[in-house]
Amino acid sequence: MNYQSYAVIGTGAIGGLYGAKLQQAGAEVHFLLHSDFDHVRAHGLRVESKDGDLRVESKDGDIDLPQVNAYYRVEDMPACEVVLVALKTTQNHLLPELLPPVVKRDSLVVLLQNGLGIEDTAAAIVGSERIFGGLCFVCSTKVGPGHICHLDYGQITLAQYTADQTAAGLTGPLQCLGTDFERAGVAVTLADDLLTARWKKLVWNVPFNGLSVVLNAKTDEMIGNQHTCTLATTLMDEVLAAAKAVHQRHIPRTFIQEMLDATKHMKPYHTSMKLDYDAGRRMEVEAIFGAPLTLARQAGLAVPQLEMIYRQLKFLDERERPNI
Amino acid sequence: MNYQSYAVIGTGAIGGLYGAKLQQAGAEVHFLLHSDFDHVRAHGLRVESKDGDLRVESKDGDIDLPQVNAYYRVEDMPACEVVLVALKTTQNHLLPELLPPVVKRDSLVVLLQNGLGIEDTAAAIVGSERIFGGLCFVCSTKVGPGHICHLDYGQITLAQYTADQTAAGLTGPLQCLGTDFERAGVAVTLADDLLTARWKKLVWNVPFNGLSVVLNAKTDEMIGNQHTCTLATTLMDEVLAAAKAVHQRHIPRTFIQEMLDATKHMKPYHTSMKLDYDAGRRMEVEAIFGAPLTLARQAGLAVPQLEMIYRQLKFLDERERPNI
What we know:
2 copies of one chain form a homodimer. The first copy, chain A, is α/β, with parallel strands linked by helices and 324 residues long.
């Protein structure tokens, strides 16, 4: 491995899956846990993967990590060469407390999160030169304490952050990171421009995360109905227009059809936002919907359907948790 | 009464309420029933009204009609001077069978329904000179067989239809109709222009019927949240723009604030569309959303939020009843 030590901040469906894969490939991985801490310290971490039924030390199958470096307090963790942030973005306000103990002078921080504008907090803490974004195209769910079910996909797009919103290119550290993930059995795409990658991820997340909650629908139901298919397309159109107006990123319209086709071939599943909503957790409404909406407005672009799904989700989010 | 005999086609929350009031005021009323026929023939019709607790012959209170002219087959009904159509618009395709037996040469047909373009079917059957629209501003619910609960409001706006979409004015028959409803204790507004009245009704129905279903929300929840309030306003703006583009009807923007204020002062309730959805009945998506959307598009006007709520409702409607 190019980097020997990894910290996973937030050991859920994403952090648990990729952390386990990295440990299985030989990295020293340190997991920060909250509600699952006791269970994982006692029983380890269990990842049921789509690729097979084997349990122990099988790269293509399920992963049992009986020996897990599990921590309840970030202060007890060692500083690591790479810090993977896999919290929900709704908890990014905790980063000023969570990051300093686990970073050292040259640590890389990789935000395995969706949404726009989420790197700024981390960049303010560790400096903008060592921040990366990771876009996870994966169907993975935490089904019980320390128990993750990896249903489909799994690839990650990695890109380096820049403070001035330019493309960072395929830097050396980015390539080293990518190689480590590949050695862990993860399909990796290196992107020279983080913002393009983030907007492209929004093209899928905005319609399918949003409508899955508002319409209580799985991916196959949405892609199988002409009305939700049309809505997904028009929402995607607004995201493309916003990427162009806000950050001058041109995503071709053929990308919309690619996303629709990919969704047609997915195993039917509940989006992560729908799972959050059903579990009574806060939804990532601001990172995925609020940030692009605000930026589009500031750029003078009307995005009426993005605004509508944003407000519908805000209503639902606030009704569930009136005190936030 | 100016008209002695009334037929009520569709004895639900609307037809039952106004039919009972007219009968109580002295008209001869004939009720067409379907699922409630046996119950109403045996037990009569019961209307619990907001205005008081009295049961028998009280104009301001509850109404018991032990003697009801109830029919299961329209062929058994006498032709009447006035026919009140109080079906859901989703059943208007039945009018070619339902209307002919109950109309005579000079009968008036009053469509007590929401939506746009709903008079055309009736006009084709009885001629366009005798068609009226009735917009009911009422919170009324059928709570059991032959048992209607009138919770709030009750006023009706009546206007005469014209084939060429011009304002009919306050015609003689319109005034006679209005007087009959007033004698039955109903607050009546006579409108000289049916299309303006229909678009104004849509200003409320589009946001509140639509969002109540999609967000599973009562009126007080929607009006009490800043995001749904903003959404209601922008949807209303689109309806105003459509009224202007499609039919050159100018509804002032102050009307939006009037509707929001009125909603604030309503008793919290589930909209009729939400009740339909929860009961597994077809929703009036086409009359209330599809018709103005299609007309706006034909007029070259973009109404992206109206289109979005339309498609969300279509998805929900089709999922509940995949075979329609």
